Structure to design on (439 residues):
């Protein structure tokens, strides 16, 4: 219920507030649709706050925007370790830069008497939220490393599902609490944009390019004679600026033409041959079949108190057999040193990847996504691994060929019943609904 509110309800509230609130403010209070400059009231601290904030947040914003718009390209880039390390270091440095700028701006509004007179409660709330959001982002980068890689498989499809009006919580359910909080705070900030100074992001002063120069001066006849050369110099500077802007615009246009083909292909899709179309349809059919198979498994688990896993004699102590538990999560089945089953969840407690089935010489299984080792007998992660929670052990039941329960074991190790040694290899392993637990 909480996840549904923060990741389904709140996003649509925020998006509605952003669009409707911005339009209403533009219609009813057009002159407040840009940030009211406080530079006349105080400019020294503004320089040390505004510049680091805007420089840092632009880098962070672009770093979030590219994986969202071009996930395929981003995945190919992040397959290179050097690129991932560079992006992570650049992102953390930019976040700290933006944080320093925000703290300066916040302190400036708190301590400056002149600035307080033009500061609203919403300004302080938004500044505080932005500081909290950047701190959460830094904590996420430090505690859940290589977000530039795993975000394409989690947050990116979640955001696209929200924008396409098909919200899918499966992409965020297994995310760590810090990442969930980072997403939720982002939606709150978006919701407050129309009621804060952040709305000036939509007010681009393009008309300044052709507007006549303006200067605010206290003048008299004598000062006019002295100020005339300054005005002429300002006009010349404006012409030079326009020439430079024209040159940059031309260069940007040529660069845009160079990459336009790739962008058009990305958004419109390539022109496929009949063979490629047939291959695409085949993939879609396979996905539909996989979905149907998954629904069959769900139905089977709803109807039955026991689900067959494997014949006990087929299980190995070193190479696990994958199966699906009652919560439709991957799990692994082994045979322990006593000859009994050992069932353990295969869903990594870090970010939900599926762990490998092979057991190493130290009795551990590996999650290959972010290199977390888990002890097979206890499920505990190795110290220093990205994962901090153990893999849950699962309960099981051994049955004979007539369906009679010979022995069963709960997830905490409590065992009920006995099985003769000569019947052990002939028994079958089942998972039991009564031992079901939520990871």
């Amino acid at each position: 219920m909480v996840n549904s509110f923060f990741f389904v309800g709140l996003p649509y509230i925020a998006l509605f507030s952003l669009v409707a609130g911005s339009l209403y403010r533009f219609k009813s209070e057009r002159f407040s649709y840009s940030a009211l400059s406080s530079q006349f009231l105080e400019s020294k601290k503004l320089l040390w706050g505004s510049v680091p904030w805007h420089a840092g947040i632009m880098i962070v914003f672009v770093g979030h925007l590219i994986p969202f718009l071009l996930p395929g390209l981003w995945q190919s880039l992040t397959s290179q370790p050097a690129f991932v390390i560079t992006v992570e270091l650049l992102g953390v440095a930019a976040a700290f830069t933006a944080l320093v700028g925000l703290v300066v701006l916040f302190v400036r509004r708190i301590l400056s008497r002149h600035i307080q007179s033009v500061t609203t409660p919403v300004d302080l709330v938004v500044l505080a939220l932005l500081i909290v959001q950047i701190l959460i982002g830094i904590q996420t980068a430090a505690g859940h490393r290589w977000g530039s890689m795993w975000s394409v498989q989690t947050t990116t499809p979640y955001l696209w599902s929200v924008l396409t009006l098909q919200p899918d919580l499966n992409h965020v359910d297994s995310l760590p609490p810090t990442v969930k909080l980072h997403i939720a705070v982002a939606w709150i900030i978006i919701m407050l944009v129309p009621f804060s100074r952040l709305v000036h992001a939509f007010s681009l002063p393009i008309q300044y390019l052709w507007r006549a120069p303006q200067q605010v001066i206290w003048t008299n006849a004598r000062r006019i004679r002295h100020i005339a050369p300054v005005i002429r110099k300002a006009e010349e500077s404006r012409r030079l600026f326009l020439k430079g802007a024209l040159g940059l615009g031309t260069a940007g246009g040529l660069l845009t033409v160079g990459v336009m083909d790739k962008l058009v292909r990305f958004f419109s899709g390539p022109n496929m041959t009949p063979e490629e179309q047939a291959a695409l349809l085949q993939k879609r059919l396979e996905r539909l079949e996989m979905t149907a198979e998954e629904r069959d498994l769900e139905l089977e688990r709803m109807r039955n108190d026991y689900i067959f896993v494997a014949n006990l004699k087929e299980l190995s102590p070193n190479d696990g057999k994958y199966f699906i538990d009652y919560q439709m999560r991957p799990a692994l089945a082994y045979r322990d040193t006593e000859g009994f089953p050992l069932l353990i969840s295969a869903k990594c407690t870090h970010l939900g990847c599926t762990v490998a089935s092979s057991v190493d010489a130290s009795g551990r299984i590996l999650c290959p996504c972010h290199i977390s080792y888990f002890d097979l007998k206890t499920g505990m992660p190795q110290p220093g691994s990205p994962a901090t929670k153990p893999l849950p052990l699962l309960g099981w039941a051994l049955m004979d060929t007539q369906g009679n329960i010979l022995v069963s074991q709960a997830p905490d190790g409590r065992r009920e019943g006995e099985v003769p040694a000569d019947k052990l290899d002939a028994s079958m392993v089942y998972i039991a609904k009564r031992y079901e637990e939520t990871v």
Remarks:
- The first strand starts at residue 306 and ends at 311.
- Residues 208-271 form one domain.
